[in-house]
Amino acid sequence: MSNLHDRHLSDRDSYSLADRVEAGKLSDAEIGKPALENGKVVDAVWGTIEGDGPNYRSLVKATVLQLKTQVGLGILGLPTAFNILGLVPGIIVIVAVALIVGWSDYVVGIFKLNHPEVYTVADVGFMLFGVWGREILGFAFWLQIVAVTGASFLSMSVAFNTITEHATCTVVWAILAMVIIAALASIQTLSRISWLGWMGLASIMSSVITLMVALGAADKPSLAPATGDWAIETTIAATPSFIDAINAVCIIIFSYAGTPNYFSIVGEMKEPRDFTKSVIVGQTLMTTVYLIVAAVVYHYAGQYIASPALGTAGHTIKKVCYGLALPGLAAGGLILVHTAAKYVFVRVLRKSIHLSKNTPVHYLVWYACIAVTSILAFIIAEAIPVFNDLLSLVGALLGTLICIQTETYMWVWDNWRAPNRGSIKWYCLMAMNVVFHFIGWFILVSGTYAAIVTINDDSKNGNLSKPFSCADNSGGS
């Protein structure tokens, strides 16, 4: 495998590469580690990394960023998905999505090892489809992250309204969330914000654990009728309409839609060979947590699940849950803003001395990227101010394209003329990727249609607040 990166993967064995990654037998050049030239670190993306600039190849603990990228807003919508689908279908869909997206996550790492010059999905688009591919996939990637950031602002405004009992206009709370997240996201390297990932993960987990315990001990969920007879209704398998079912699937896809961020994570890892291990650990832990939280909350709340789910318990517990979750919501938002801004930052300054040097141009472009990303996310949050509607739309329209179709096509492109072509293993993996690819397209088309229909119905029924409304959004709607 000499000159590993000087020739297309179609002329080499991708499976032996994967085996060597796991065995730790790849050379530094083969795993995309920065080379040393005249005592200076040179990276395929960042160029020369010197002592007077930020070290963009210093990330060690990747698993925590992967978990925080995923475990956040999505987990707050999963109980609603169970309420729509029923317990058993909900579990099946979560496991299926975990396997499909887990494969995509793995492909991201292997593709990066094969092509160290790749930093984002836009670079993949250029490699696979040329200039138009770069612009289309790059825009979809950036828009997805910005939209999810908007959902972070929206959830934080719900939290602030819940804790303060709507002490001021909701738009003010959304602006406050934007300022907090933008300030934290301006930290330049992922290694410096990894500790915030730990804090955010602990925050979200403590809030959902508190919610589960409180629901188990409470007399009734907060949305249950205050007077009269009521009963929690749960089903093994529900019979939702197609629109409701596909929206629930898209909410679950949203909870796993952090795959595009993995390009940035592996691109800043000090040891890229460890990426596959971190994906396996992260995906296993994440899916376990998702199944437990969704099943427990659905069991104790049934049809009385709020959106986001943290509002499901009683009045006081709701405040406690949101108070515990606030740091986690902020941490998730800052990673998203950081990733989206850095995509634009690298596009603007790539192959420039300003990319990895602390020059005035470096700082001006970086802070401008943070500001623009945050403002646009704020606008999206205020334009679609219903949590589940926003989650399902983002999951369908952008989540599948960037988290399923792109990665499956990457694998096919890299392995079409692999040396083991024609073997049983090759045919099985090729068939699996093709099936995953078309599943993604089906969900994209049907899910986007379902999300638009739902948003339109909510607007007609008065369930969708007006854009930039000061109205309280903490009522569980």
TrEMBL record:
It is found in: Membrane. Its main location: membrane. InterPro entries: AA_transpt_TM. Keywords: Membrane, Transmembrane, Transmembrane helix. Residues 58-452 form the Amino acid transporter transmembrane domain. The chain crosses the membrane at residues 81-104, 116-133, 139-160, 167-187, 193-215, 279-302, 322-344, 364-384, 390-412. It is a multi-pass membrane protein. One of its GO terms (cellular component) is membrane. It holds the Pfam family Aa_trans. It comes from the Eukaryota. One of its GO terms (molecular function) is L-amino acid transmembrane transporter activity. Belongs to the amino acid/polyamine transporter 2 family. This is Amino acid transporter transmembrane domain-containing protein. It comes from Kwoniella dejecticola CBS 10117.
